[in-house]
Every structure is written in C-alpha cells, then in structure tokens.
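A brief tutorial aside. Many learners find it easier to grasp structure tokens once they have seen a single protein encoded end to end. The record that follows does exactly this for Outer membrane protein romA. Read the sequence first, then the structure, and try to relate runs of similar tokens to stretches of the chain.
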Amino acid sequence: MKRIKKIIYTMIALFIGTIALIVIGGFLFLHFSPEFGGKASEEQRLAYSKSDHFKKGKFVNYGDINMDLSGRDMLKAIGGMLKTIPHSVPDQNIETLKIDSLDIIEYGPKTRLVWFGHSTFLLQISNKIILVDPMLGTVPAPHPMLGTKRFSDELPIAIEKIPFIDAVFFTHDHYDHLDYGSVQKLKNKVKTFYTPLGVGAHLEAWGVAKENIVELDWWEEVSFEELTFRCTPAQHFSGRGISDRAQTLWSSWIIQSPTENLFFSGDSGYAPHFKEIGERYGPFDLALLECGQYNELWPTVHMFPEQTAMAGVDVNAKMIMPIHWGAFKLSHHTWTDPVERVSRKARELGIGIITPRIGEQIELDSMVISEPNWWQQ
C-alpha cells in the first residue's frame, strides 16, 4: 500500500513539476523572445494620440467596429483549428516557379510582380525593387509548434539571394505578414521600410535603424523619387502578444508611378473604406485583394471571397488578384475555396481577375498567366 501511495505521490509531483515548467517556460518565452517585437516609446505614443484613429490608448477602425470574439466563439474557433478539415491543405507540395537574383537585377523598366503565396509579393516598378509583407518563413507563428507549415517547400527565390531592395512595405504586425526571421535576413539590404503607425517599433527592436523606417497614418503619403506611396485604411486589428492588441495601426497601401496605379488591401473586412479609396485615388490598374482565412466567426476581420470581388469594383480596379491564400491554413475552409469563389463572383460582376502560380512573373502591361486554374491540377 505504501508503495502504491509513493508511486501516486511521485506521479502527482511529476505532473505539478511539468505544469510548473510549462508555465515558467511560457512566461520566459513571452517576455524574452524577440519574436514579439518592440513597444512604442511614450514620445511616440503621444504623437499617435494626434491620429483620428487612436482613442484611449489604442488604434481603432472606422465606426469603432468591434473585432473581439466572444468566449464562446473563441472556443469554436480553437475547436475548428484543432479539427481535421478535408482539403484544408493541399494533398502534396505546391511547386513554385523560380526566379533568380540576376533576372531581378537585370530586369528592365516595365512593371512586373511575383507572388510568393499568401500576401507576399515582389514588385519591380520604375526600376525599383519593392517587397510587400515579406513573410518568407515556414510557419506564421512566434514558434514553429504554434502554427501550420507553408504549403510550398521552396520559395520562388531564397531570401538570401534576393538583391538590394529599395522599399519594403508592411500592412500590420500579425505573424503571417510581419516575420521576425525574414526581417533579420532582409534588414541589411533594404533602403527604407514603410509601415503604418507603431509597427516601426518592432523593426527597431530587431535592429533596423530608425532613420530607415517611415511610419504613416491613414491618408498620408510620401514620394520616393518618381513613385508615390499612400497609406490607406483597412478594417482589421493588430497585436503579436497577449497584451499588445491594437497598439499598432493596420493599413492598405497604394503604390503609384507616373504610368501605373496599384492597390494592396492588406488584411481587411469588407467595409465602406474601399469605395472611399476608389473615389479618391482610383482607377487602379491592379488591386491585390485579401481573399482567404475568412470565417463566419470573424466576418468583420476578413472578407469572404464574394466580398473580395465587390471590393475590386469599389476601388475601381481594372483587374483584381486574390491574395492571402495558397500558403497557410489559418481558418476552416478548403485551401482552394477562396480562389474558386472569388473567380465566380468576378465573372458575375464583370471585373477582370488574374490568378497566377506562385513564382510566376506577371508584367502589368499584359497580365498574361500560364495556367489560370493551376490549383485544380
């Protein structure tokens, strides 16, 4: 009997010890891992308070739209992510088309883009090299065990081989858009980083020089030689840790040359800001629009595919390209549902749509793609 009690006490002690180690490890990780980024100084926060979108110490959406999930909906969301969902990831590795550094360096003055999957793309415009939301890591999470792996084993080009970059844009600080490992590998070959308010604090914490960071509020713009960069609204939220929700701003971006006008939605629910952007700055030759990771539990945070096509009409785009899909599982739908549904709605609305393969080189003066329905193969 004594032996049985001893075994039970030992098991209880081991259980308590294991829980304690997990709690301590979690605490240390949350407080000391560089993945979580930095925090704005009091001086910076004072400057943010002048923004129309900063209230009571937090950034807010138009109309103060509530982004919070109820406790019940949170449990549903977690349960959905833990549940096996048929076809939520591809049956096999998605092969990517390749581009090399010499091709990037020697490319001429025409505008072209290369999609890396999800919301990352490389843009060459007016002889400039630009990266938008360069999440080039394997898992969109602060630790590999906390997320799902990228659908493709390889990127169109290894991050180390990307040549000098004139500008990098970030839309917000979520892990599937702002990646610590990618910034570490890119930071010494980027001229200027452009972010919405507050996101620069993360970059500074990761070793990017302050003078190489430009933070903008919604509707602000800057010139970059013959290019114009405009920071425009989105309906979303931000945060990388437990206590930093809405401490940085989220945005969409406009990149305009003397001859072309591009819109990049970032992450956003469907809302009136799209029409306002279109009225102010449209028409757009191409609008790269979020289309993926939607759910009825968070309808204000991400657009459903039909809304993506409607947003293209609202911003007055000649052509749309669905992004935020094809790389990661961050919701409960099948991995091809976004592109299939948005393609149908685009045809219904009579708006052009382009769906290139990951790594395919798209020239904006033709926008010809090799395999329009490549995901079906």
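Self-check: The longest helix spans residues 2-32. If you spotted this yourself, you are ready for the next section.
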